[in-house]
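re: that chain from earlier
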Amino acid sequence: MIPPIASNFVAGETPSEALDHVADLNARGVKGICNLLGEHYDDRADADADADAYIDLAERIARRDVDACLSVKPSQIGLEVGDRAFEENLARIVDAADCFVWIDMEDHDTVDVTLDAFERHARETDGNVGVCVQANLKRTGETLERLADCPGKVRLVKGAYDPPASIAYKEKSKVDEMYREYLTYMFEHFEDGIAVGSHDPAMIEFARDLHDEHGTPFEIQMLTGVREDAQFELAEEYEVYQYIPYGSKWFSYFYRRVRERKENALFALRAVVGA
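^ sequence. v structure.
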């Protein structure tokens, strides 16, 4: 059973609980991105099992007719077993899903194989696949130039992993500067949709200004349990998605969310004291 504080950040342990959460969000204008918790599998059987679970989840989404899509981690569906295992399981998920499929970005040494997989499936599905890129990586400018003409969506986040300083910006102010620079490039050059993955009010306002200037379609993506009142308010005017983790492996996710950034710890504290 998930304790109350963790249930603020995790939708439940079962797909039914996750889709109940989606249905509640849909009623308030917010769409869902469902992620089965799990990562860094080195056993093919575990990777195959989670790929099967995603296929089942896609079928459940279609049966319930909720507005939701999938988000998968490469290391969850076989990347640490080998490139072939990852590629085969991702292809199975994309082929089986009627809904949109996001490919999360993980550690810096997995960027190339993740981008290759995204480009291939985005072109084969005419844009029914998305990928995440991280503003703290120094290579992201080149990545965005590479993806500008590719169908599908690109989610820009600040970056939650801790790559070495030789390849990543470490100062928060510099990451914020690059986030704005990359968003500007995306609104100027991307036509198939931009996902602003941020809880930072300043970044969301910056994206709104860019949208007003360029007219480029975009959506806002936030986590379950973080600034939910703002999510519902933004959904009155913009397309808003909530990233919805669920599953039995909730503890490591919750622990990482709270440790990653000071603001998440404050959100967790407010959830406990009711502030």
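The beta strands are 31-36, 68-72, 101-103, 129-134, 153-157, 194-197, 218-223, 239-246.
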